Amino acid sequence: SKADDPDAGKGQRVMIIGGDGYCGWATALHLSNRGYEVCIVDNLCRRGMDDSLGFNSLTPIRGIHERVRKWKEVSGKDIELFIGDVCDYEFLSATFKKFEPTAAVHFGEQRSAPYSMMDRTKAVFTQTNNVMGNINLMYAIKEFAPDCHLIKLGTMGEYGTPNIDIEEGYLTVEHNGRTDTLPYPKQGNSFYHLSKCHDSTNMIFCTKAWQMRTTDLNQGVVYGVATEETMMDPALINRLDYDAVFGTALNRFCIQAAVGHPMTVYGKGGQTRGFLDIRDTVRCIQIACDNPADKGEMRIYNQFTEQFSVNELAALITEAGKKIGLDPQVINVPNPRTEMEEHYYNAKNSKLQDLGLEPHLMSDALMDSLLKIIIEYKDRVDKSLILPGVNWTESASVGQQLEKAEKVKA
Amino acid sequence: SKADDPDAGKGQRVMIIGGDGYCGWATALHLSNRGYEVCIVDNLCRRGMDDSLGFNSLTPIRGIHERVRKWKEVSGKDIELFIGDVCDYEFLSATFKKFEPTAAVHFGEQRSAPYSMMDRTKAVFTQTNNVMGNINLMYAIKEFAPDCHLIKLGTMGEYGTPNIDIEEGYLTVEHNGRTDTLPYPKQGNSFYHLSKCHDSTNMIFCTKAWQMRTTDLNQGVVYGVATEETMMDPALINRLDYDAVFGTALNRFCIQAAVGHPMTVYGKGGQTRGFLDIRDTVRCIQIACDNPADKGEMRIYNQFTEQFSVNELAALITEAGKKIGLDPQVINVPNPRTEMEEHYYNAKNSKLQDLGLEPHLMSDALMDSLLKIIIEYKDRVDKSLILPGVNWTESASVGQQLEKAEKVKA
Ligand SMILES: NC(=O)c1ccc[n+]([C@@H]2O[C@H](COP(=O)([O-])OP(=O)(O)OC[C@H]3O[C@@H](n4cnc5c(N)ncnc54)[C@H](O)[C@@H]3O)[C@@H](O)[C@H]2O)c1
Ligand SMILES: NC(=O)c1ccc[n+]([C@@H]2O[C@H](COP(=O)([O-])OP(=O)(O)OC[C@H]3O[C@@H](n4cnc5c(N)ncnc54)[C@H](O)[C@@H]3O)[C@@H](O)[C@H]2O)c1
């Protein structure tokens, strides 16, 4: 199948923006391994955020230059590296002229909801970095590569939790006897999620006005650390975040279970979301590359494979953990977010499967891609990072945050 | 009625952001004249844009310091002036602490669709200035004046031209047997209109997460120059834009008619929009001030009084012009925008009228507030400014724009 064909990508030149990140790194290697000509664009700001906040990946990730060198050694394939910021149009223009992409996969955004809610500066950074970076990218495509297919990562969180079924991007509405198919109404629940709503809204316009080819992937929560390529050598290993800012629920629960800390369920635990294995993320991007949108068309797919409530996640991990000698426990902690803890949730996700995606199941993945690797690196866990973090209603100016911190100390 | 009561505003302290602009100046005087304690916040960037592009108001507007001094002389009322940028949080914080507003009316955004489509830099400026300014404002309210009512100017252009009725902000959807009331789907048609979509999407979240009081006014195209207060003295006169970037269709048509230039209808002229008289704008803001939203509630009103197609506008002006000895003509010019030229349009606008708005009619306003004033200042018209301007599909990087300009010269 195309998923394994080493020549699948022949003739495609794919720019992976955010290629030093969790999804981007795995995707770059997946595509490179299948004959796509790949380059990575990244300003490494994510590594800087980890440093600033005192976080670290559970797995010992290498620098991007070393990673790429090692990949060449292991696979014989080149990945060209462009270190710079997509918000810097001069850099981005030069990169486009040099690499001449046929597709640009855009992972390069600030992607943590709690980070965007820490304080005003980070809220503004998140929306500026994400929205303006994406505008720049659309201008660069228009100016230097008008046929280039923009594959943009969105999030299922753009939809919020409406009381009706979540469709894939568009909703056909009958109203007062007339009908139209409109962009699905968006209700982001953090400055991060909102930045993705803005990206999508901007893309709908540019796709039409500039006759671009675009695909918007509303991705669910990604879990797991192992993909075929990132496990080929320890120097290729992918990141695994478990802090309260960048760690997503499932990764965090697994690490908590592994070190004998109770899994911290926020509130009632009825919050339901879509999830997918990192091995499905890389395959979805390949599918998007191989099925470019027409000029003036914006395809929107919901990129997740299964949906679970937080309580269901905890139950799955408890079951899997017991099989390998762990004894996972649950505690319910006050919810730092403003969100519904019990709600209807039914999101559609058939489009990518119609195009060939064969989903991994979480119940299997927990064992072969997650818990075992975590146990391997368990001595690296910094226990101070596994408690809940940022509070949605407290999000304040930097000055106020510092004042509060003073009071706590005093 | 409240519309005329000189003590209507007692106890209210209203911050007018963008108070040196077209809508903001008229609103500041209207409220000041009715007993509201008013301050103006403005960074005067709009005057700078006019200077850069070689534009000027038809009417000879005075500097903001002189305007405010004259108002004190004419009315005996003080308007405090804060010159600075809402994107500068240090300035905004100090202003909030000093003035302690009970309401903040936010007009202070880059508000021209063509300006936002001129080049990439102006697209990014528009979305940064507008979206980040509005985020700052919400943080300032949260931090310094949590009871303050945010009255935010949006635009009817956020809705685009859907094939169903346009409701006031929310749409009740029945889908697969379930029902929810959701934010009305937005389809902005320029980086400017999109910035307003983003503002609204951000506001919905902050209103809920931070229990703010907010009102979003989706305003139609404003026309006219005369309000009671701005006509009290020549030094108080309001701006009247007629260039192809900041001038809106109606104002431009009137000026074209007055100087004997045919009215430049873009494309087929079937484009239909909502309109209102500047005298209704100021009254709508007063109504919003007097009817604050509850904590955690976001009110959304469609702020326009009549809807017309471009061809209908031209016909109205032809009729009015003939009565005062003009002979207005029409030419259809190629449409520089990407937009539908024939479409369904039926937008609701009952909420503000239910709260007491008594609309002026365009057919009357053309005579008493627009054509006569234009004729008075007609010698100031710069004829080079009345042709169509910015092209939507050409919007490029600054470098590309300069290159094109070179080619035209060569
Ligand atoms: N991880 C998930 O569960 C998940 C879920 C839904 C959507 N997504 C989306 O997928 C994308 C990738 O997520 P991830 O988990 O790999 O995040 P990540 O933080 O691991 O990677 C993002 C990368 O982008 C880079 N980057 C950020 N801003 C940049 C800029 N202005 N210029 C250049 N590079 C920049 C960072 O340095 C980082 O390497 C994001 O857009 C995210 O919103 C992720
Ligand atoms: N005029 C219309 O027809 C119309 C229609 C719909 C909506 N609106 C909205 O109403 C508002 C006012 O429009 P207008 O026609 O009076 O525009 P305007 O350009 O005349 O006034 C806007 C004012 O805001 C100021 N400003 C802009 N950015 C600022 C910043 N960052 N900090 C401080 N001040 C800033 C400008 O200097 C200017 O004085 C805008 O938000 C606009 O989008 C206007």
Structural commentary:
The structure is a homodimer of 410-residue chains. In chain A, helix 4 (89-99) runs parallel beside helix 6 (120-144). In chain A, the strands form 4 sheets. In chain A, strands 3-2-1-4-5-8-12 form a 7-stranded parallel sheet, with helices on both faces. In chain A, strands 9-11-13 form a 3-stranded mixed sheet. A two-stranded antiparallel sheet of chain A has the order 6-7. The longest helix of chain A has 25 residues, at 120-144. Chain A has a domain at 13-241 and 277-304 and 347-360: Rossmann fold (3-Layer(aba) Sandwich). Chain A has 13 helices and 14 strands. Chain A has 410 residues and is α/β, with parallel strands linked by helices. The interface between A and B is large, with 55 and 55 residues. The complex binds nicotinamide-adenine-dinucleotide (2 copies). One nicotinamide-adenine-dinucleotide is lined by residues 18, 20-24, 42-46, 85-87, 107-111, 129, 133, 153, 155, 219, 221-222, 248 of chain B.
